[in-house]
Inverse folding.
């Protein structure tokens, strides 16, 4: 059980913080969940834990953006009130935002999650980071929701790349993921038809097939459509595969775009 950062039963809450890094992260998260309701996290605890995770290169990029940009608890309280007038949406937001950091510490560093998280944060698009965090946080408890979020992640990345392109590439409001990916791939010169070397054509063709498969999987088992009497049962391992593939493809697209931009 993690330390209660917002309890007033101790004279020195910083001294009573747990030593384990995962427990310290849980302490920060739980304190901020409570702060969403009544602004009760201890100022010294917040500053101590924030400084600790910010100073570690392995965790600094995994901290929620609102923690990285708010140096004290008064700023946090203003942020939470602006995010939602109600307590529960604030709490849910905090829990989801902490998933990358908690997973990283719980699973001995989860390197792939951390690498993708860092790249998406540098891309600086809130909708994309939000979709990734949702995909990560729902893999175990809500596999169908995780698959839907994974597809949303890729759709958002493709749309942002098209919008950022010279001349603002257009796309239709009803364009599905495979079509959006084809447009983005052609823009970035990674469509199979744009290459003659067989090895490249195979690799890029496989990438396109992964994206198409994600779109199909989401239509079959995601939570965005009603199911029939015998819905397809999706397991956490299926969700983990979909999320990992979506994260890898998002990383590939963004790194390709960054390389072309020079």
């Amino acid at each position: 059980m993690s330390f209660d950062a917002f309890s007033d039963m101790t004279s020195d809450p910083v001294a009573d913080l747990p030593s384990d890094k995962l427990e310290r992260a849980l302490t920060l998260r739980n304190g901020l969940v409570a702060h969403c309701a009544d602004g009760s996290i201890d100022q010294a605890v917040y500053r101590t834990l924030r400084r600790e995770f910010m100073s570690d290169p392995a965790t600094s990029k995994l901290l929620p953006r609102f923690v990285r940009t708010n140096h004290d608890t008064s700023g946090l309280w203003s942020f939470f009130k602006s995010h939602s007038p109600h307590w529960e949406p604030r709490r849910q937001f905090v829990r989801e935002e902490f998933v990358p950091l908690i997973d990283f510490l719980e699973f001995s560093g989860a390197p792939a999650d951390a690498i993708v998280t860092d790249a998406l944060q540098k891309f600086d698009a809130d909708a994309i980071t939000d979709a990734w965090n949702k995909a990560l946080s729902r893999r175990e408890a809500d596999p169908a929701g995780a698959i839907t979020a994974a597809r949303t992640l890729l759709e958002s990345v493709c749309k942002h790349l098209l919008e950022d392109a010279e001349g603002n590439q257009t796309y239709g409001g009803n364009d599905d993921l495979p079509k959006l990916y084809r447009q983005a791939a052609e823009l970035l010169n990674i469509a199979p038809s744009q290459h003659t070397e067989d090895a490249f054509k195979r690799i890029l063709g496989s990438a396109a097939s992964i994206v198409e498969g994600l779109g199909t999987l989401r239509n079959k088992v995601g939570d965005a459509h009603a199911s029939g009497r015998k819905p397809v049962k999706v397991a956490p391992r299926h969700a983990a595969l979909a999320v990992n593939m979506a994260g890898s493809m998002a990383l590939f697209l963004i790194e390709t775009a960054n390389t072309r931009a020079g």
About this structure: The chain is about 70% helix and 0% strand. The first helix runs from residue 21 to 38. The radius of gyration is 20 Å. The mean pLDDT is 84.
